Amino acid sequence: MGWDILSQFSIQDYFQHLASKGIKLKESDTAFIEFGKQFTGMSDYMVSISIEITLKVQREFDGSYYIALLEGFKENNITTKKKAYAYVNYLELELTV
């Protein structure tokens, strides 16, 4: 298993990383991200993974998708990037059946 760069980032660091890649979140999005973190009690690492997956799947920040991911991660005790992506793949398979 490889080293995951997200594990070293705070949420603010991750926002800066996204901005350096040309992805700029609105202030309302960043406030909602912080709300989601507080609401679910998830770590900065899992919040960053939720943002990453949300942006990849939705092609923009979608607050309801982000919150659903965080809640799913919490309910299923998901604490790694590998497990998070496996969970999302599982959900996508369930939706296509």
Protein model, in words:
The structure is a single chain. It contains five helices and no strands. The model has no long low-confidence stretch (mean pLDDT 90). The chain has helices spanning 11-20, 27-40, 44-58, 63-75, 81-96. The chain is globular and about 35 Å long. It is 70% helix and 0% strand. With 97 residues, it is mainly alpha-helical. The N and C termini lie far apart (30 Å). Helix 3 packs parallel to helix 5 (81-96). It has one domain. InterPro entries: DUF6123 (IPR046126).
Which keywords apply here?
97 residues; mainly alpha; 70% helix; globular; DUF6123
Number of domains: 1
Structural class: mainly alpha
Sheet with most strands: none
Shape summary: globular
Low-confidence stretches: none
Give the overall average pLDDT: 90
What's the gyration radius in Å? 13 Å
> End-to-end span in angstroms?
30 Å
Element order: H for helix, E for strand: HHHHH
Strand content: under 5%
Pfam families: DUF6123 (PF19618)
SSE blueprint:
Layout: H1 11-20, H2 27-40, H3 44-58, H4 63-75, H5 81-96
Pfam families: DUF6123
Can you give me a brief rundown of this structure?
With 97 residues, this protein is mostly helical. The protein has one domain. It contains five helices and no strands.
